[in-house]
Give the backbone structure.
Amino acid sequence: MVVPSATIDSLLKEKEQYPPPASFREGAWVRDERFSRDAAKDPERFWSERAKEFDWSRPWSTLLEWKPPFARWFVGGTINVAQNCVDRHAASARRNKAAIVWEGEPGEKRVLTYAMLMREVNRFADVLKALDVKRGDRVTIYMPMIPELPIAMLACARIGAIHSVIFGGFSAKAIHDRVEDAESEVIVTADGGYRRGKIVPLKRTVDEAVADLPVVRHVVVFARTKEAVPMQAGRDIGWDAAMAEADPVCDPEPMDATDPLFVLYTSGTTGKPKGVLHSTGGYLVGVATTHRLIFDIKEDDLYWCTADIGWVTGHSYIVYGPLANGATTFMYEGAPDWPHPDRWWSLIQEYGITILYTAPTAIRAFMRWGDEWPKKHDLSSLRLLGTVGEPINPEAWRWYHRTIGGGRCPIVDTWWQTETGMVLITPLPGVTTTKPGSATHPFPGVEAEVVDEKGQPVAVNKGGYLVISKPWPAMLMTLYKDPERYRQVYWSQIPGKYFTGDGARIDEDGYFWLMGRIDDVINVAGHRIGTMEVESALVSHPKVAEAAVVGRPHPLKGQALVAYVVLKSGHKRSDALRADLREHVRSAIGAIAVPDEVYITEKLPKTRSGKIMRRVIRSLVSGQEIGDTTTLEDPGAVDEVRKWLEAIEGKGP
Ligand code: WTA
């Protein structure tokens, strides 16, 4: 693999260490290294102890049935996730505790206690039932960040329907493909949502997406902005009207622990997104345990994960993890810089938020906007900070620690993926001495390794592939309707081990340092984009013959997309066409996938077998040295691509 030696050298200079503050350690759930050692000795026992903390309608008979590559956790057990996330607390001393505290972008405030949340979830579950949604059916949810989004998810979980949440920034075409693949008969959406003071027209996008999808029987529309939107008679149903007629009691369906809870589409290395399928029992136990121990959740915490629920981070650590633990989860609808770049800091001060979990890309944006914005606010309520989504550069880590955390809050840099469902590599804030830029160690009961192509562990500080050696509870079950692709993508590279697609190294103290994706997936602003997906969007444009899309380092977004495009004969390069191509990607996938630069070129560099030399292009535009050319079909390729790139740059985009 290509591991830039420059990266390793710079990381090796990173000797700073931050032990947990004594005051934090004293009160933490985990304060003893022995906890991880005991879990490592007997992971099955560790997970079965954790699982006993939940309400099971029938206990499991087999903790883990592992028929590689398919793992089934808590086999024989039945459980309902919504019952565990809501009813269990509504029937306890937490009944009047805030479950969700929400602020809309225009500034409205709402609080839902566990008892209130329970009523809403019951009623919406009954609405779904009335629409003839049954156990195992798929429901697509395309909503803004409002409480009705988790309510809809929990209502699905309550009746055993499988939800497919689509991030509100995806285009009509992207929704169309996901609804078609999932065969969702019911869609839940809103008229719109607010982003930077503007209305995002969600319902109109859904209308466009499903116009030619007869499988869709009903679209339930929540009135968020109250703007008039077209409603199709017979198909479209207003949320409020349906809720008014719903039965306030809808019994939770006892689900098999091994039944699917949700599908979440994510980018892979082909043009077609993968439907990552997560389980009921294993997922619940995995996300609740990691959430409680990594974020050290206490009864009086006000916890804020800034992700959008449309991504896995929001599923696991805004909705299921926090609610399973009876915590209070904070939700904010809008943009971080609206109306000013201190919106987040004003929310933290106003509500007294104690735990903040966000992405390095956001941290870098705030750094750029300047210290004066956080400095205007009292952030002393914060006691713990977290990051996720991409490697954090030590400079951003230090800024976060000092400027946001006041130097007193531990930082948990959590590594995981849509497929892993839960965090797998992370500090435990009461015990782990952190090093800026390192996600530190595997979570208790998780076994991770860094190996070479043959699956052999690599030497200390040497880059290799990150693999997970044993199943973990929130591991994906499979790819929806595509077990073969599941086997091939995750279990064929290194037999018997889960292949993460990330490069990593382990330092002399056993700390894991993540080095980014080693496949054709890149992390742009903490979001995963398959370069192939963008390429197929580009070649679907009538004037495009071929396209190659690569990532290159970007000071704010971590990585940015650069596209090289060959036109069909008869078409000429122009600024208008480049703008048109970017627009085309926006409507095919969404704004997050639009390349920063589109170069129109005469040809793309290819290997003798006709493959575009993406890896070489990627390394060269990233300014990386090619560490290992042994796998290149043609050793002259690097020079050839270098010349090709110079020729393009000379001509300008
Ligand atoms: C990257 C997001 C370094 C990684 C939860 C992974 C990280 C991909 C970290 C998954 C981290 C996530 N340090 N890299 N702490 N967290 N990644 O599926 O490349 O959207 O494979 O899940 O993000 O992205 P996904």
